Amino acid sequence: MTQKANTASPSLITTILTSIPGEAAITRIEYEGPRIALFSKNPTFLLRNNQIISELVNTLRKRVVVRTDESIRKNEEEARAIVAESIPPEAGATNIFFDRALGELTLEVRRPDLLNSAGVDVVTLTERTGWKVRLRKAPHIPSNTMQHIYYALAAASEERTSFYRDVGERVFRPRLFRDEEVGIFTLGGFREVGRSCLLVVTKESKILLDCGIKPGASSPSDTYPRLDWAEIFLDELDAVVISHPHLDHVGFLPVLYKYGYKGPVYCTEPTLPMMVLLFLDYVKVAAGEGRPPLYDNRDIREVIRHTITLPYGMVTDITSDVKLVLNNAGHILGSATVHLHVGDGAHNIVYTGDYKFAKTRLLESASWNYPRVETLITESTYGAKEDIMPPREEVELSFVQTLNETLRNGGKVLIPVPAVGRAQEIMLVLDEYMRNGTLMEAPIFVDGMLNEATAIHIAHADYLGREIRERILYGDSNPFLSEYFTVVEHTEQRDEVLEQGPAIIMATSGMLEGGPALHYFGALAPDPKNKIVFVSYQVPGTRGRRVLDGSTTISLPSQDGKIQLVEVKAPVTRIEGFSGHSDYNQIIKFVARLKPKLQRVIVNHGERRKVDNVANAISRIFHVNTLAPDIQELVRLY
Ligand code: ZN
Question: Mean per-residue pLDDT for 97-111?
Fold first, then answer.
């Protein structure tokens, strides 16, 4: 074993060593990205007496993590055998991943709730294996995306070790300036929906918030964030923070690595697999259509290796003068509002990303109790006066009613769904109403990328709303595994699905631009007995929008490369109100909660009319300085 020197500063090391009992057997203290890692030969002592670490965190005001010293880590084969012996068979250990860069062992278990009764927990497993053990709920179908991430991480252990150290040295360097000027450069997603991106600049740091693309835009200068205008070099950037994995917030991220960005990306834990799922699909689709992709799998691997995930609510230094906290945004799994605390507290910025200020079946309502906020940057997607959504129950009942009509007539319903977010909410609705008898019993076929997204939801159930989380983690009433759902695993199965009687088919993509939804659409649309039900917004120019607008003939690509014309005789409807965004009322209610300390509100992420409406309303109701900047503007915060 090579002897590695401590990288942390001498005074930091002295403080740590004097406040930790010798029993902890600390061998090394290192920066690990935004954390300070304590390597110990007796990690269970620190894990069992966790007040020692929490006191240390209070003294240092920095994040601290316990790591196991390399000398006590069993080799992977031995560790595997120990885990197999320790886990009761009924708990069902399905997968183990060794992260050598962090000394972590991630264990996927079907029934984590059964471990305690067998006297096993993460601390005992850490003691036995010498690896820091993390538990994860195993999904019903193995997630290819998570496997892809494990491989990408494992193949770059050494680079990642030095990456974490470099990031730490940059984060924990002493501050040079004391004054706290902040500027916000608007690079995308201002007075428009798409390519969300803004750059926060202080005397010490440059931080990019989101990095999206605008699908359907006509030219590159309208499609991508205007990083060129801000004249920043990618190696000057300290960090990128991603609010959530929708393409309009994250689609440009791999391009940053392609062009040489080498710094960290911060996001929540579920955001990583969800964005990787979208990136891999993008590359695959581009290859299938024979167009050159913006980025390739190599760039996606770089994203994976440079991502540092943070739990909700954890205060984390990301540069010498900025602390970051991610909080629940209620929009999709793992979506976050971004809270930046600049300098010694002169500025607190909350960037909402996309948020829902109301509880849904899947998620809790967006967090609102920030200790301080002076500048709020809020989205306004549904910010027009008429964008008031009916109560969820009404929405659900009219959805169920329209499904019943078709099923009773012996028809089939196709619900095209986006893979990430809406699909899982709809699954919960279908299961609930079929179980209580309101929705006619019929098989529900689930096809496409949404199955992979559901697996990621199950593996990260701790990020879901309280009720659904309990159902997944404890007991056996996981609604995603309901007997009503049948996962379509092979393309040959699709014809069997179509031969059935009345049925509900959920398939990607949500706007009929690709995926298995096209196959079902081609088969079901010509028969007036069937129905097409959209549950998400249809972007102008997409096939879904043409269908919704009443086109009677729709062209589909067919396998032999020819164009197939389909007559649409099945009725088409759109159910409004399943949105993961706040409507006008919810935006105003959210601002009202923050009101006392606000100095300024910046409105973004909406069509011009909606941005203006939200900005005017906030200024009128709350008497607070409100801005609705265009892209390519610099907003100075004093
Ligand atoms: Zn979104």
Answer: 96
Alpha carbon of 328 to ligand 1 centroid (Å): 13
Question: What are the tens digits of pLDDT across the range 402-459?
Answer: 999 999 999 999 999 998 878 999 999 999 999 999 999 999 999 999 999 999 999 9
Is the Cα torsion angle 231, 235, 241, 242 positive or negative in sign? Answer: positive
Question: What are the two backbone dihedrals, phi and then psi, of residue 95, each rounded to the nearest 5 degrees?
Answer: -160, 140
3-state SS string for 162-189:
HHHHHHHHHHCCCCCCCCCCEEEEEEEC
Distance from the CA of 251 to the center of ligand 1, in angstroms? 11
What does the H/E/C string look like for 494-538?
HHHHHHCCCEEEEECCCCCCCCCHHHHHHHHCCCCCCEEEECCCC
The token pair that represents 506 in the structure block: 């959920």
DSSP SS3 for 299: helix
Phi and psi at 443, nearest 5°, equal -65, 145
Q: Each residue of 3-13: pLDDT tens digit?
A: 455 667 888 88
Q: How far is the CA of 589 from the centre of ligand 1 (A)?
A: 20
- Alpha carbon of residue 239 to chain centroid: 17
Q: Which two tokens stand for residue 254?
A: 């791999």
Which residue do the tokens 């057997």 mark? 25
Which residues are near ligand 1, the ion (C-beta closer than 5 Å)? 246, 354
Burial class (CB in 10 A: 0-12, 13-18, 19+), 189: buried
Is residue 264 within 8 Å of 240, Cβ to Cβ? yes
Domains of the chain: 10-71 (3.30.300.230), 88-138 (3.30.300.20), 153-385+581-636 (3.60.15.10), 392-574 (3.40.50.10890)
CB 244 within 8 Å of CB 205? no
